Structures
1.
Amino acid sequence: MSAAEEPIKKKPVNFSNILLGAGLNMFEVTTLGQPLEVVKTTMAANRNDSFLGAIKRVLSRGNLLGFYQGLIPWAWIEASTKGAVLLFVSAEAEYQAKRTLNLGSFGAGISGGVMGGLAQSYLTVGFCTCMKTVEITRHKQMEAGIKPPSTFAVFADIYRREGIRGINKGVNAVAIRQCTNWGSRFGLSRLAEDGIRKLTGKTDQSQKLNGYEKVLASTIGGGLSAWNQPIEVIRVEMQSKTEDPNRPKNLTVAKTLKYIYQSNGLKGLYRGVTPRIGLGVWQTVCMVGLGDIAKEAVAKLTGETPVGKH
């Protein structure tokens, strides 16, 4: 049997990717990630706010600490789990797309990102994102001078009144966001890597991009991935605790889209896109650019073959 006819063998699972993904996402959210998330969510929930207006609103809720609202425990729980899920599942899916479907870097990158994003949504991101949005958008008690209940008291109250569905409100919008997010980020980052290879003459796949080139590719991929901001605004509205008597009950993705468009027009669907671009760049640099660099470093230390690099 020739090399070309040899059956494709399933590679061993690389569990170092799980810990690596969790560590990278914890770093991302604790540095720039959560402040950008808070501003983005504030603008999406208060669609008449400008960028500076949203910053002033966040500062009024707790000065600089307002930018880290929802970090503990929800953003940390989300980061420590979704990073692991993303890096592990996306690397496996990207590898399989290349080996079994014979896809190029762009197609395999999209496949890996979509599968990783879907896995994230239903395993961990849905309820964590919902609780972060609840914390960021519940102003009434604070504005009235009433000390708001603890985050776990809010969680228990939502669960008591609405059950699992309440905790996972907007999870389908989260799933659409996550699979388009990471499909775009991985795919566009891989496409940017191919472009950088051509510009630098590294046409042979064995010639590795350096750290600066990886980060540049990730920055391009992350910035361009903000095209799906309407899905993010829909997600925030579905999970928001901002009071609006005109908002329909039992929101679905379609109902929410119609409500936002009727209330704020096309611009309303793109509120928060500026911090979203910054967040997309930072997340992609951490999870794609630094992720690839870190996977290779771990592989050298452990003697393993990094997943997706077979």
2.
Amino acid sequence: MKRPEHHHTHWFVGVAAVLFVLAGVIAVCSAVRTHADEWGLTAPSAASASASKKAAPAATTDKPALAWTDFSTRRPLVYTALGDSLAVGYFAMAKDKGYVPELARTITAQQQVPVKVHNFSENGGSINTVAFPQLAAIYATKPDLVTIEFGTNESVYDDPPHSATPARFQKNLTRLIKDLQAHTDARIVLLTTWNQPRSATYDARVQTVAKHYGLRVANLEPIWADAQQNGALSTKGAASFLGYGDGFHPSDAGHALIAKTVYQQVKPLFTP
């Protein structure tokens, strides 16, 4: 009777050994499946490879251009203006007659787009005295459109800290554009200077920077150069919302012409 028991004992031991080995194999296979990708033991399936190929463009494609047609009353176009007394509105008869609000109205009328305006401009201002000290606040507006109108005061060499040599002005303008592009998604339009002896020199610097960064430029020179015919300059002594005309700053007609000129550079931005 003991011999058969001994036989069964060996049988059970053998079965247990086999089960132990199988358990080990299963554990190893499970570990391999779990860490296969990590250990580089598998190749992606055709389906996953296809999915990866389709997903790749989303990760590498540049940020899509701003969809200007998506603006609405709930998401108005944010227009941030940077400049000197011209952008403030000297010497229009009323505050809403300056070129900045006039440009905003034109965009709304022509593109059926509501516009929210932030104006950081100051009388006598330059990039160094107006733009750089307010950069954080400018970024905070999250602008869609920025107009930059500087260089007129920089061209007056004996007026520090507003003045800047042509080379320094170009460096400041370059830095301003780089800062705006690094911290906002704004489209940027540059304006040339207004009616100064050195306007041509500074306007050339504006054009050089614009070409380098692929920006559009609103050329104001034809407006003030033809002021006798188009009435672009304010009349000396004429009342305005900020004081009296000086024969140098724009009149209502001048601001309207500036807004029209700037809009010609803004308009193409609405076409992808």
